[in-house]
Amino acid sequence: MFSISNLASGYGQSQILHDLDLDVDKQEIVAVMGRNGMGKTTFFKTLMGIVNQTRGSVKVDGIEVAGMDTHQRVENGVAYVPQGRMIFPGMTVLENIQTGLPASAGGKVPEDLYQLFPVLHEMRKRKGGNLSGGQQQQLAIARALATNPKVLLLDEPTEGIQPSIIKDIARTLKEIRTLRGLTIVVSEQVLSFTMEIADRFLVIEKGRFVLEESRQNADETTISRYLSV
Ligand SMILES: Nc1ncnc2c1ncn2[C@@H]1O[C@H](COP(=O)(O)OP(=O)(O)OP(=O)(O)O)[C@@H](O)[C@H]1O
Asked: Where in the numbering of this chain does the EAL domain appear (predicted)?
């Protein structure tokens, strides 16, 4: 469903990603685990066309999106929740969500988004910058979902978030996957979070996938060895 092959990219002369291959099924949740600086953010930015790829293919339901501008990739069903959430702090919660809506929605937020995140409805008139870290993460996810994606990419969603809220985010992501038939790729350093949600685990080191385990075979000790410094 979401097929990445031979993907390479970098910054200027320095190549960061080396021939990445990944096929994600519809409704599958894949976790890309790796320490700081191993290439997780570069991977997502390349998938979104924010960092230029030097080679490779990225297909959504058979449609080649590599080479498209970021907004065209969004139109073709790829949504991105960046590291650090990047919500607009001076805009209200409602306005933040509206930035993700297609023009055809006329600014109207779909009911099911507020059902998924009731707190965003309560706080829709508040400035995004006044929300807690966990609420901002929900807002960033809601804004991404407003584009009605087929594939959701999340870059370290648990960063800076309290453990109790992390559990809520895990529950919500699983719910969204089922409700919307979403395919999810999430990057993380926190294994307890991905153990709750992922069907498959990949470890990235220096821009290469060095380990792949299905949920059934995933061995926490082995994966955590890659994550400890
Ligand atoms: N704008 C940039 N220009 C040059 N090199 C960069 C740039 N951004 C990242 N890099 C380099 O690319 C490599 C991968 O970084 P990246 O941010 O993708 O890693 P990461 O796994 O997401 O780490 P983190 O968890 O710290 O975000 C690192 O060596 C980093 O120094």
From this structure: 1-104
- The number of CA neighbours under 13 Å toward the Cβ of 75 is 8
Q: Residue 82 Cα, ligand 1 centroid: separation in angstroms? A: 13
Q: What is the pTM of this model?
A: 0.93
**pLDDT (tens digit, 9 = 90+) per residue, 82-121?**
998 898 999 999 999 999 898 777 888 888 899 999 999 9
Question: 3-state secondary structure string, 200-220?
Answer: EEEEEECCEEEEEEECCCCCH
Structural domains present in the chain: 2-88+151-227 (3.40.50.300)
Residues lining ligand 1, CB < 6 A?
11, 16, 34, 36-42, 83
